[in-house]
Amino acid sequence: MKTDIRNKDDIKLMVDTFYGKVQTSPILGFIFDDIAKVNWENHLPHMYKFWGGILFGENEFRGNPMYKHIMLSRKTQMSEIQFAEWLRLFTETIDDLFEGVRAEEAVTRAKMIAKTFLFNINQAAANEV
Question: What residues make up the domain containing 77?
Answer without folding.
Answer: 8-128
